[in-house]
Amino acid sequence: MSRFACRAALLLALSLGISAPAYAAQDCAGRLGTSRVMEVDPVGLQVGTKQFPQTLDLADREVVLTFDDGPHPGTTPAVLKALARECVRATFFLIGRHAAAHPDLVRREIAAGHTVGHHSMTHPMTLADIPYEKAVADIEKGLKADDEAAYGAGGTRPRVPFFRFPGFGSSPALLAYLKRRGIGVFGADLWASDWNPMTPEAQLTLVMERLDHAGRGIILFHDTRAQTVKMLPDFLAALKQKGYRVVHIVPPPPQTAVAP
Ligand SMILES: [Zn+2]
Questions:
Q1: What predicted TM-score, i.e. pTM, was given to this entire model?
Q2: CATH class of the domain defined by 38-193+203-250
Q3: Which one of 34, 145, 240, 253 is least enclosed by Cβ atoms within 10 Å?
């Protein structure tokens, strides 16, 4: 392919929206950016002070951004665009049936460098309120659907062993199950209450008040909410202005070597 053809192909890819790798190569100077990557061991992990006694080891003014319930074609692309504009990496906790319906969006999240975790197949409210076997089946179906959408195949262990309970509705038996499966459980330290209808301005004020009070933490949003999409650019600008730093959480790399 000639240099011109290469360039034409690149421009075509960009115009078609296949631009995720371009974000990674972008110059992040002057933007909020992602300040560090934190490798999180999922085995026995239970973090987020809204649900558990402990949380991630974050320094003052460090935040982890998480988005639940997607992907959704009406809102997730705008969330990805806002994050890309500020060179910020986040974690998406997917609903399996949404991932199965929109695998293209799941792949865009991964291509842009975000972490893709799991949030059950059908989002029962809650998994703790349905029979244990049904709850386990819904969790497992979700893991498989997400990985099939993301990578074309789901193995016995999810590629990213991170899980968040819908409505934070866990039970000791389900927590023990995930621990045995080596899957880490993420709650949150604060949220924007974006399931309640409010203006983007009111939501921004609310979440910044909560964040300024907490000083750090795992923040929960929903990439399915239009008000969150509208708020996000201003929220990222507020983080930058107030000196907050974004931490990107990732699982350890898959173990390829077998111990002798
Ligand atoms: Zn949810």
A1: 0.89
A2: alpha beta
A3: 253
